[in-house]
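RECORD TYPE: inverse folding
INPUT: structure tokens
STRUCTURE:
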């Protein structure tokens, strides 16, 4: 086995898409933007250098959990097998970097996350949609608590530099997003 295993840290650039493969296995796909940061000595600050985009593929239970847990803009750590694919479509040559994910998680250096174990039974195609609604409500509840704390004073979830675990900080600036050739 001469597979190239990679670990990529980046931001979710497209909403994860969920499908059932022809063999009945669940598959999810999204784009990950990894921006290199460099220290600019002239301006004495960190600056974006360039962004690499990867198509991340998740299968089976990982696919369902990705759709239920991941949204655009969130920082992730993705580990998997790198595949460089070159193809010709409509007279144009495309090269894409795909990652067959083995593990995906939120980058806890840039925020917090809550883990919920799911049953080992094979999830239905409807489960990610239902779980996405549950996650949206949970995010709304946390945001409401954060806003309430911000109005009431400097609580543990209040905004501002270094005041709480959900406050902004180095590396929280948004990265550019782009679209590759698609599902083809």
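DESIGNED SEQUENCE:
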């Amino acid at each position: 086995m001469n597979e190239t295993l990679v670990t990529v840290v980046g931001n979710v650039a497209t909403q994860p898409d969920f499908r059932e493969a022809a063999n009945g296995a669940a598959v999810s796909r999204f784009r990950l933007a990894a921006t290199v940061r460099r220290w600019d000595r002239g301006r004495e600050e960190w600056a974006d250098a360039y962004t690499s985009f990867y198509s991340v593929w998740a299968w089976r239970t990982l696919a369902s959990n990705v759709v239920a847990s991941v949204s655009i803009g969130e920082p992730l750590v993705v580990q998997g097998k790198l595949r460089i694919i070159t193809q010709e479509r409509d007279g144009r040559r495309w090269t894409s970097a795909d990652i067959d994910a083995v593990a995906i998680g939120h980058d806890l250096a840039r925020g917090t996350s809550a883990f919920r174990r799911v049953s080992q039974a094979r999830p239905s195609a409807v489960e990610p949609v239902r779980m996405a609604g549950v996650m949206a409500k949970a995010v709304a509840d946390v945001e409401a608590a954060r806003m309430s704390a911000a109005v009431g004073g400097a609580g543990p979830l209040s905004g501002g530099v270094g005041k709480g675990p959900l406050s902004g900080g180095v590396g929280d600036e948004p990265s550019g997003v782009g679209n590759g050739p698609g599902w083809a």
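NOTES: The two ends are 27 Å apart (CA to CA).
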